[in-house]
Design goal:
The structure holds two protein chains of two kinds. Chain A is an all-alpha fold. Helices cover 48% and strands 0% of the residues of chain A. The longest helix of chain A is centred in the first third of the chain and has 18 residues, at 5-22. The chains are: A mainly alpha, B mainly beta.
């Protein structure tokens, strides 16, 4: 089913966040459902910020993604 | 650290400020950058020399969106700045997003704080998972000495200590919720959530969030001190009162109410009382109990006055309790008194301790 637009924005934000700061490979995500890579990277981010590791884009995780921050990645090399 | 523990091979590091943000005086930017570098030179042998032309190790500039390194900024908020680890060329270079409002205070993004963080990267530090560390990736405005123990340990692992190190007082690391010796500063309810204050942090427990969330007090309430002594919720007035020293603040939800802080003596406490250890609202009697040292007081919320006949000794009216209380909260009709690493589940009606648990069992430890 097509995502409601609010979800879609959140989804795009999360995808961009994870690719910028956690090395999520670009372009791999299908729009329907969670790919393994997406889930793995969300778990990495939740572990880093000591959030509950759910592997899903829960409210807490999304709220943190929206906070002002430094542009250097949290994990992985900075090329 | 970055993979490969990238660092400058020479302790004399040069920097150059290529351009300036229109948000601040040139001298303010110079000072902010110099103070940010001094944060790191104070605890390492590093010496920073300013160049006014040519290529420096650390080239500092302000730019917006795509600004020359194919690593674009994103307009206001979001990404604030970035920096590159030590190395030739772009290595060490530090860029600030000029779509942000840069300030010298807490009214917008404080340039000194962001610069100190980014220059940490330029010296070889990567991000910390400690919410109280300068190298934590999320911006928060803090006052006082900016480095935490975690930051100092990290930079000295790369460069060693400053041989002439002036005594610095680093911020303690964030408390570990499962430390068996953990004690609390204050506990209160807040619209169905439980807020637990410890040092500069608070944990937020939400019924649907089994994992407590740790946050800096000042990132939510910049004007409240870094240390909270006591807190209680009056659900009927929908306010939470937070005590620190001889002052108290009022929250409605997460918002600070105008007209605060007020002195705790406005409640009717004598001037000799300098600190409230714990506070809890008893909904049956509409009284708030305030604990100070070995005594407690009873404040009538309806009349706004302290009941006569107080203080009374805690030990006398709460049999089974230690004589001092760090924090108190009311849950499901029971009182929970916290003292050091233990918490006492107390029945206010039958006047006795029902169970003794570890303080941090409330944090799923």
């Amino acid at each position: 089913l097509p995502l409601p637009s609010g979800d879609k924005d959140n989804w795009l934000l999360a995808e961009k966040y994870l690719s910028r700061f956690y090395g999520l490979p670009a372009g791999l995500q299908g729009r329907q459902g969670v790919s393994n890579a997406f889930e793995t990277k969300i778990k990495e981010m939740q572990t880093f910020f000591k959030l509950k590791v759910t592997g899903t884009l829960d409210d807490n995780t999304l709220e943190l993604m929206e906070q002002a921050r430094c542009g250097v990645p949290d994990i992985g090399e900075y090329n | 650290h970055f993979p490969g523990h990238l660092k400058w091979q020479n302790n004399n590091v040069t920097f150059r400020i290529l351009n300036y943000t229109p948000d601040l005086q040139k001298s303010d930017v110079d000072r902010a950058i110099r103070n940010a570098l001094n944060v790191w030179s104070a605890v390492t042998p590093l010496i920073f020399k300013k160049l006014h032309k040519g290529n420096a190790d650390i080239m500092i500039s302000f730019g917006s969106k795509e600004h020359g390194d194919y690593n674009p900024f994103d307009g206001p908020n979001g990404l604030l700045a970035h920096a590159y680890p030590p190395g030739q060329g772009i290595g060490g270079d530090t860029h600030f997003d000029d779509d942000e409002d840069w300030t010298k205070d807490s009214s917008a993004y404080n340039l000194f704080i962001v610069a100190a963080h980014e220059l940490g990267h330029a010296l070889g530090m990567s991000h910390s998972t400690d919410a109280g560390a300068l190298m934590y990736p999320i911006y928060s405005y803090t006052t006082g000495y900016p480095l935490a123990e975690d930051d100092i340990e990290g930079i000295q692992a790369l460069y060693g200590p400053n041989p002439n190190q002036r005594k610095v007082k680093p911020k303690p690391d964030a408390p570990n919720k499962c430390d068996p010796g953990l004690s609390f500063d204050a506990v209160t309810e807040l619209r169905g959530e439980t807020i637990i204050f410890k040092d500069r942090f608070y944990w937020r427990l939400h019924p649907q969030m089994p994992e407590p969330e740790q946050t800096l007090i000042k990132s939510t309430w910049p004007s409240i001190p870094n240390k909270v002594d006591a807190a209680y919720e009056n659900p009927e007035k929908d306010i939470v009162i937070i005590f620190s020293g001889i002052r108290m603040w009022a929250l409605n939800g997460y918002n600070l109410l105008d007209g605060y802080p007020k002195y705790i003596h406005k409640l009717g406490l004598p001037k000799t009382i300098k600190k409230v250890d714990a506070a809890v609202y008893i909904s049956d009697t509409r009284k708030t109990l305030l604990f100070t040292d070995e005594d407690y007081w009873s404040y009538d919320e309806a009349t706004g006055t302290m009941d006569s006949g107080y203080p009374r000794p805690i030990e006398v009216d709460f049999p089974g309790m230690d004589d001092e209380v760090d924090a108190a909260v009311s849950h499901y009709g029971y009182l929970y008194f916290f003292h050091e690493h233990l918490q006492y589940e107390y029945s206010y009606t039958s006047k006795r301790v029902l169970r003794i648990l570890r303080t941090n069992s409330i944090l799923n430890c």
